[in-house]
């Protein structure tokens, strides 16, 4: 239906905007458009929105923003923008999973594009600098009032999700940029938080208040997009702003991470990790927030899902820095703490784990743990030794990532706990020599094989240094007839490094 027909049926003309004896023509037109969009007839709705876009682009400024009380004008446009958001909103999900089939979102991208075009046209007229000064001042206030709603809409449709398309994502991203530009901000962070900490022009608190009603325990799964909108907005806010919104973002993040679905657990932990990294430690410890996060994350350690552990382990490691003092602080007794508790759990699961992906993930996690714990890692050397030996025995060819990572773990362990390594030299030395023999018999890519040999030889050199040359004496007794030539070359680098280096320098062709 053409917009001129709508105006004629309502007995409204463009000249009526100055007639105070009639109801506000703008309100009547927008209300009529809202009523026509309610049935959600997709084809007719897109046509109506296209006509509405032309209305905003071509109507006079004084008609679009009449001289009525500012609160009334704001209410008219907020109701209108809400109806636009509702027209492109996702269907309500009544399933426990909180996920609908992609077929339910078939019409959403088209509707989103149409709504984005209308909002863009409205923002264009709100930001018209050629309008009278009176309108410019009122329009800035109106833009700030509409910005939170438009921001939520654009974030809903700019992510890569089943209800978006390339066109709808592009339009939503352009809409978000237009909102920032119209308000006078340069980026999304300024739009949300203001240009400085003391700048109160940001819309973040209003946006979080809007999402709060949709992120309760009872209804947060009814709208599939809400959790993604919350997560996207959260990660945009960093230090020093995030601490001022901690009360609003902490409960939803914890709620999402506590769900039984893997997708939601990962998303929730991602949100919690962002909070840990961007909120001062003192504020996290206040009201036992950090302890609550710790227990929530520790419960996730019992999973066998690599996707979840991949986000939980780094998050837990950063949280421990908040809860515990550095082990390097010798002013306090080095008692057992949560570092030891988590590491014991990890080592227990590493000994039993047979999945390659999880073995690599656990091995990668050990290196930062050893760095953070420092010399107190000696409390766990016995179990750590068993894990290292066990992981060196199993090949994950062709890339051998797990073996290379566990060799890096051994290097870091020797560096940190070298005073207690000498007594473990015989066991670790045998394991490394066995690895050298295995590598020469197995088939790996040349670069991988070289990395294994170099790292293994380096570990043997470090063991020899920690044992004050005792390993060198043992290796000198190796019978040349019992070892591969490559193994003997590696041993030679330990027993006689100067002469070996001289030989390799004089005869590069042989190498």
Question: Which tags fit this structure?
Answer:
25 helices; 511 residues; disordered C terminus; elongated; mainly alpha; 0% strand
Measured distance between first and last alpha carbons: 83 Å
Estimated helix fraction: 55-70%
Strand content: under 5%
Report the count of strand segments.
0
Shape estimate: elongated
Cα radius of gyration in angstroms? 32 Å
**Poorly predicted parts:** 16-22, 499-511
Instruction: Give the oligomeric state of the chains in this entry, treating copies of one chain as homo and distinct chains as hetero.
Output: single chain
Number of helices: 25
- Structural class label: mainly alpha
Q: What's the average pLDDT? A: 86
Write the H/E string, N to C: HHHHHHHHHHHHHHHHHHHHHHHHH
Biggest pleated sheet: none
Which SSEs are present, and which pair or pack?
Blueprint: H1 3-9, H2 25-37, H3 42-58, H4 61-64, H5 70-87, H6 108-126, H7 133-158, H8 166-183, H9 188-193, H10 204-212, H11 226-236, H12 246-257, H13 262-278, H14 281-285, H15 289-300, H16 306-323, H17 338-352, H18 356-373, H19 381-393, H20 401-416, H21 425-441, H22 446-466, H23 470-475, H24 485-495, H25 497-506
Helix pairs in contact: 2-5, 3-6, 5-6, 5-7, 6-7, 6-8, 7-8, 7-10, 11-12, 11-13, 12-13, 13-16, 15-16, 16-18, 17-18, 17-19, 18-20, 19-20, 19-21, 20-22, 21-22, 22-24, 24-25
């Amino acid at each position: 239906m053409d917009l001129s027909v709508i105006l004629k049926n309502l007995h409204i003309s463009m000249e009526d905007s100055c007639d105070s004896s009639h109801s506000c023509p703008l309100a009547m037109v927008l209300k009529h458009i809202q009523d026509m969009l309610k049935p959600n007839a997709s084809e007719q709705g897109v046509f109506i929105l296209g006509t509405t876009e032309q209305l905003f682009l071509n109507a006079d400024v004084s008609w679009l923003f009449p001289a009525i009380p500012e609160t009334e004008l704001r209410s008219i446009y907020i109701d209108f923008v809400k109806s636009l958001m509702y027209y492109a909103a996702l269907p309500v999900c009544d399933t426990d999973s909180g996920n609908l089939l992609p077929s339910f979102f078939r019409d959403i991208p088209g509707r989103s594009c149409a709504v984005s075009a209308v909002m863009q046209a409205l923002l264009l007229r709100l930001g018209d600098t050629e309008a009278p000064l009176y309108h410019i001042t009122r329009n800035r206030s109106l833009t700030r009032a509409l910005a939170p709603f438009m921001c939520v809409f654009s974030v809903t449709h700019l992510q890569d999700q089943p209800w978006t398309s390339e066109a709808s994502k592009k339009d939503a991203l352009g809409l978000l940029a237009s909102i920032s530009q119209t308000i006078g901000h340069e980026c999304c962070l300024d739009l949300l938080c203001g240009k400085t900490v003391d700048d109160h022009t940001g819309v973040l608190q209003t946006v979080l208040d809007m999402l709060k009603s949709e992120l309760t325990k009872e209804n947060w799964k009814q709208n599939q997009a809400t959790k993604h909108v919350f997560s996207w907005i959260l990660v945009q806010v960093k230090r020093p702003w995030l601490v001022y919104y901690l009360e609003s973002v902490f409960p939803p993040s914890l709620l999402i991470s506590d769900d039984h679905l893997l997708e939601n657990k990962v998303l929730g932990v991602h949100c919690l990790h962002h909070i840990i990294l961007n909120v001062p430690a003192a504020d996290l410890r206040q009201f036992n927030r950090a302890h609550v996060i710790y227990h929530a994350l520790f419960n996730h350690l019992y999973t066998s899902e690599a996707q979840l552990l991949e986000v939980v382990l780094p998050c837990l490691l950063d949280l421990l820095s908040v809860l515990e003092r550095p082990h390097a602080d010798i002013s306090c007794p080095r008692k057992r703490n949560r570092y030891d508790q988590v590491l014991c759990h990890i080592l227990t699961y590493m000994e039993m784990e047979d999945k390659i992906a999880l073995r690599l993930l656990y091995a990668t996690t050990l290196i930062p743990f050893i760095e953070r714990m420092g010399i107190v890692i000696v409390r766990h050397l016995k179990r750590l030794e068993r894990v290292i030996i066990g992981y060196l025995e199993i090949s994950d060819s062709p890339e051998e990532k797990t073996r290379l990572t566990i060799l890096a773990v051994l290097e870091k362990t020797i560096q940190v706990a070298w005073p207690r390594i000498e007594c473990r030299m015989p066991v670790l030395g045998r394991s490394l020599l066995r690895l050298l023999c295995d590598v020469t018999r197995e088939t790996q890519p040349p670069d991988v094989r070289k990395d294994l040999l170099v790292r293994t030889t380096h570990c043997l050199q470090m063991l020899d240094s920690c044992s004050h040359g005792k390993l060198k004496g043992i290796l000198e007794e190796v019978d040349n007839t019992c070892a591969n030539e490559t193994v003997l070359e590696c041993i030679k680098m330990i027993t006689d490094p100067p002469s070996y280096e001289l030989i390799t320098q004089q005869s590069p062709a042989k190498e």
